[in-house]
Amino acid sequence: MRCEVVAVGTELLLGQVVDTNSAWIGEQLAVAGIDSHFQVKVGDNQARIVACIRAALARSDAVICCGGLGPTQDDITREAIAEVMGVELRRDESVAGVIRGMFARRERVMTDNNLRQADVPEGATVIPQTRGTAPGLICPVDGAETYGVVYAVPGVPAEMREMVRRAVIPDLQRQSGTTATILSRTLRTWGLAESTLAEVIAPRVDALEASGNPTIAFLASGIEGLKVRITVKGPDPATVGVLLDQEEAALRALLGDVVFGVDDESMEVAVAALLRRAGLTLGLAESLTGGLVGARITAVPGASEFFRGAIVSYDRAVKHDLLGVPPGPVVSEAAAAAMAVGAARVLGADVGLAVTGVAGPEEQDGQPVGTVWLGLALDGEVSATLVRLPGHRQQVRQLAAISLLDLLRRRLMARAR
Amino acid sequence: MRCEVVAVGTELLLGQVVDTNSAWIGEQLAVAGIDSHFQVKVGDNQARIVACIRAALARSDAVICCGGLGPTQDDITREAIAEVMGVELRRDESVAGVIRGMFARRERVMTDNNLRQADVPEGATVIPQTRGTAPGLICPVDGAETYGVVYAVPGVPAEMREMVRRAVIPDLQRQSGTTATILSRTLRTWGLAESTLAEVIAPRVDALEASGNPTIAFLASGIEGLKVRITVKGPDPATVGVLLDQEEAALRALLGDVVFGVDDESMEVAVAALLRRAGLTLGLAESLTGGLVGARITAVPGASEFFRGAIVSYDRAVKHDLLGVPPGPVVSEAAAAAMAVGAARVLGADVGLAVTGVAGPEEQDGQPVGTVWLGLALDGEVSATLVRLPGHRQQVRQLAAISLLDLLRRRLMARAR
């Protein structure tokens, strides 16, 4: 089974919007075991959209068209698909009713343009919307030279993702005769290099090689660490869920604290959950990160339950005067420890967490760029840890922030045991 | 003149990497007046890369292939282009010498694989590297059915951008018979809705309509404001530069303080320059932003010259105890003003800047999500400004941060007059 992706929109070609939808769809297709050999961007031009869909169906069994389903005159994906199918558009009154109802509920005036979204190529099946107004379409093409299935989904990422997950991937699997359920789960890790991670989980990769199910893949995720993706194929969701749980447990047994989250769980979400569970409040002292750690922590809804605040002591004098850092170099074990203690004291928090270091572009006090001290004060104990981080200013700052959060995460996990 | 983009790499199809290169190239082509109707992603498979290039040349005059020029066995863009040209690869000894020299200077052992990057299709011209090891290629194709030009550039964004600017766009303009220089400049704005911005600059757009040179385009840039791009065509860089300066001046006369920067200048870069020029130090008090404002300010290299630090007073008690906010509601005019004064006092700064508000998901003290107060203390004056920001938690936080920086920017500009 092969499926291509056609992203529609002149703004994509002009670089005003980066097409992230195709990449996301590509990942879903890969997980579902469907090959995707070509992905195309095309502008809002009917002849060119038609040419793209025809070329894709000549090479593949299915095409997902993304975008061009809106209410304006340059949204012409529906017309292009109807031309490929060799049929007319007809207004679907039940879709039109949904759109009218949505405007009525929001007390907004609906222009007739909006009903264009209820136009459906004859013979196509509607994928109902759950978020926006434009429905998706499943369009069988059965011409002399061109045949296959064309799916149309909106270009708004949240609407597109929900619809691809709910309707397109399952339909593709049905089309391909796969009655199997394929699901994946991603373990997010921090602290191991890719080669080390590969060595650690080699026993599981080897054990799975014969059956080929589950499969395990590594994905780099930039400054957010490495991901280990488990993909399982099975007869039904319940069976697949059990296999995913088993494989996750086997990998966690090898990886231990290196795993900080699953799927979309970020490092700050993991830290927030541990702080809540422990009933501890947090105070930060940040230097080179300038507020990045606090910004991450407060990205978690409900952070006010455990987060007291931060002292961003960028200037040396602020470290000494406000946090009680003793005289001497401020990128040092003593400074990081004093900052952690000072943050807990000044902010009235149970946990004091601190970071000081050299982000660059210049070295500081004879210390090279990337020298970073992490401080932690908890349960009457104070510690400071040195890390040497690679890269330039922005990368050092980002890596320092996630390293600090990871330090607290590991300590809270050890404490909970 | 038409030019398509072919992005090469299986990782792009699998969604492991988002193809941002095509979007950037598309923008450069648009600015240079070259049409780009299709952009394709294809995996590391020679037959499929060849098919993509042939299909592109059948529709267009030129193709830019991006990626697949590295040293490993799956980097096969060179081989695919040679197949399209109907020629062999030959090793370019001068390129090989550059690669050997680079490894020698870095004192690293070079494996033979690296010399694959010196293999050049016969008849192609090398675009020398200035950053990495893989050179670019300009490859004329002159077959019976397929003809045009294929450019090959590396997939590493910094290397690709430098090479496209330096060699590919100028060559395309030569190929198209354009001897003109086309350059663009982007004015970055904050504070006006798109429709208002369009009204304000309508006199310039109307005045330019007859000649069509310069042209003016609007680009939305999400939470970072709206961009106004000026594109000028002229006989040489000097003439074009003068026209760009004139048009920038005419637009600035209409837009005034709404313009905060040019091209890649961010809001924090503008604020940093103004603080440096005024010789003022800055202290922040952040609440709902949690550190975002400090993180932006300290993203500017050399921020330590003017940035003292921040008090992230997320908890109500920290606002009262540390910043001296009076009892009462903390999302209020009085609280924002007191936070600004407190930040300047506690951090020993000339300027105190503060933000407090409701990020959501829940309302707070009866105030709806998006209610944000901005405080500023400078020259013995204290003010607080209410803004109502749209969107959900993350957007409200981001908009609050840039709104606060913009408030300071306008005040410092007014002060400098």
What does this 3D model show about the protein?
- 2 copies of one chain form a homodimer.
- Chain A is α/β, with parallel strands linked by helices.
- Helices cover 41% and strands 24% of the residues of chain A.
- The first copy, chain A, contains 13 helices and 17 strands.
- The first copy, chain A, has helices spanning 10-13, 21-31, 46-59, 77-85, 93-105, 157-175, 194-209, 237-255, 267-278, 292-297, 316-323, 333-347, 393-416; strands at 3-8, 38-42, 62-66, 89-91, 119-121, 125-127, 136-142, 147-153, 181-189, 215-220, 226-234, 259-262, 282-286, 307-312, 351-357, 371-378, 381-388.
- A 6-stranded mixed beta sheet of chain A has the order 2-1-3-8-7-6, with helices on both faces.
- In chain A, α9 (267-278) packs parallel to α13 (393-416).
- The radius of gyration of chain A is 27 Å and the shape is elongated.
- Chains A and B meet through α2, β2, α3, α10 and β14 of A and α2, β2, α3, α10 and β14 of B.
Overview in brief:
The structure is a homodimer of 417-residue chains. Chain A is of the alpha/beta class and 417 residues long. Chain A is built from 13 helices and 17 strands.
Q: Between the first and last Cα atoms of chain A, what is the distance in angstroms? A: 48 Å
Give the low-pLDDT segments of chain A.
none
Biggest β-sheet: strands ordered side by side in the sheet of chain A: 2-1-3-8-7-6
Q: Largest interface here, residues on each chain? A: A-B, 69 and 70 residues
- Summed up, the helix count of chain A is 13
Percent of residues in beta strands of chain A: 15-25%
C-alpha Rg of chain A, in Å? 27 Å
Shape of chain A: elongated
SS content category of chain A: alpha/beta
Which bin fits the share of residues in helices of chain A? 40-55%
Q: What's the main sheet of chain A like?
A: 6 strands, mixed
